[in-house]
């Protein structure tokens, strides 16, 4: 892919990195800047953050001796708006930090954020922005956690309408 972009046939190639607050996504962004800098020099790198949708329910834990009971309480419209505004501010701050990191490496970055479940929002953004390569960081959840929560990277590998590169953070072994 790097050769196609360098020899002029790929000047319109769009690369998107989906990030969140995790170290894994930061590592993926740094990996792109270190390893694909020449490939992304001709068009801006798109950095994407999914904002979780604000729900109208708040869940509280009620102690019942040893057992706990969780029950939802409907919230006011003001709470939902406040929560959504906080999600937006967090996403904007995360994107600005990523944009500064890119600028420090001499890479132009375009930032995009959408509201929705991360896995579907990422795949939707791939189609909407005609992305040619999606890059994600691997969280490294174990089998059980991945089965319960689902894997964003696995979902994107299966459903994104472009090639997907999942960057796995190297494990440091202590001797």
TrEMBL record:
Give one Pfam family, short name only: Usp
Q: Taking every annotated instance into account, which residue ranges of this chain make up the domain UspA?
A: 13-168
Matching SUPFAM superfamilies: Adenine nucleotide alpha hydrolases-like
Designated name of the protein: UspA domain-containing protein
Q: From what organism does this protein derive?
A: Prunus persica
